[in-house]
Amino acid sequence: MAHADRRQRLHELVVALIQQQPELELLDADQSGSLAAAQGNPAGWLERNRRVVQRYQALVRSAATLDALVEQEVGEPAPNGKL
Known about the structure:
The chain is mainly α. The chain contains 3 helices and no strands. Helix 1 (2-19) packs across helix 3 (42-73). The longest helix is centred in the last third of the chain and has 32 residues, at 42-73. The radius of gyration is 17 Å and the shape is elongated.
């Protein structure tokens, strides 16, 4: 049950962090509809999507770090002994 609780806390933290973002882009699902592809630059489409994914990854890492810090403060061990 602890794993499910942690997963729920992480989910809530990620959602809270996303809500704090002024503007968060979504992935372009298909390069045929993207501006970069329309301009003959499919590499630009890939690069844009890579940047979007990296931004989401940073939010998830931030949530995991915040969760570990909270667990440390309240005296609960972090999963696998990591922060």
